[in-house]
Amino acid sequence: xxxxxxxxxxxxxxxxxxxxxxxxxxxxxxxxxxxxxxxxxxxxxxxxxxxxxxxxxxxxxxxxxxxxxxxxxxxxxxxxxxxxxxxxxxxxxxxxxxxxxxxxxxxxxxxxxxxxxxxxxxxxxxxxxxxxxxxxxxxxxxxxxxxxxxxxxxxxxxxxxxxxxxxxxxxxxxxxxxxxxxxxxxxxxxxxxxxxxxxxxxxxxxxxxxxxxxxxxx
Length: 218
Ligand code: AP5
Ligand code: MG
Hints:
By secondary structure, the chain is α/β, with parallel strands linked by helices. 48% of the residues lie in helices and 16% in strands. The chain has helices at residues 15-26, 33-42, 46-57, 63-74, 92-103, 119-127, 167-181, 183-190, 203-217, and strands at residues 3-7, 30-32, 82-86, 109-116, 129-132, 138-140, 159-160, 194-198. The strands form two sheets. Strands 2-3-1-4-8 form a five-stranded parallel sheet, with helices on both faces. Strands 6-5-7 form a three-stranded antiparallel sheet. Strand 5 and strand 6 (138-140) form a beta hairpin. Helix 1 crosses helix 9, helix 2 (33-42) crosses helix 3 and helix 4 packs parallel to helix 5. The N and C termini lie close together (12 Å). The structure holds BIS(adenosine)-5'-pentaphosphate and magnesium ion.
């Protein structure tokens, strides 16, 4: 049976950082809807052109576009053992679509770790984030700096600051999260799938909390 993990949490809490670490251990691919959109934007695909305007304003991309992008990604062969979903689902409509989609693989959502941290921490993390151009490796100028400034330790590519990490966009992303995504917390709690993780801890401690959830249930 494939294993599907949904990482839930506000912008900047550390979903991508943790998913990169966990995907190696769990031997399932890390699927970030934000990364997929950014790849489409870089390649100037039709989807990328459509998504860019929403992303730069900190709004959600419409559900139908997002769901069909995730559907085609989950159909790829590397997802045969499951996936670690980061940033999807983000609305109740997307959560229902995911259930239907996983049914096609005889799968279901197995765990929903919900990483949370107070808003000032989120803002501080987003304002200091640097992302690698080639593969999306994530750094922070103070909390997790690269060995050489501006260069990714993993693949040597250039680091950049995301367009949507500008302070006015960050404020809107957090507001959109509370309005459209936070209802998923109760949705998954009612199904007994949610486990809360204190995202204000160090990167290593958050990883240890997440590993404990996966090992306990697995
Ligand atoms: P997306 O790329 O998913 O952005 P997000 O959810 O806002 O989350 P982030 O990637 O900003 O934060 P993160 O939690 O991954 O934190 P990270 O590990 O980088 O989405 C972008 C946009 O795409 C959306 O706004 C929307 O427009 C669109 N989109 C995406 N999915 C969609 C969907 N399903 N439906 C519709 N639209 C969608 O860490 C942040 C920083 O903190 C880094 O610098 C890191 O080094 C540092 N850090 C991490 N953990 C710690 C720690 N424990 N201690 C100290 N520093 C830490
Ligand atoms: Mg991310």
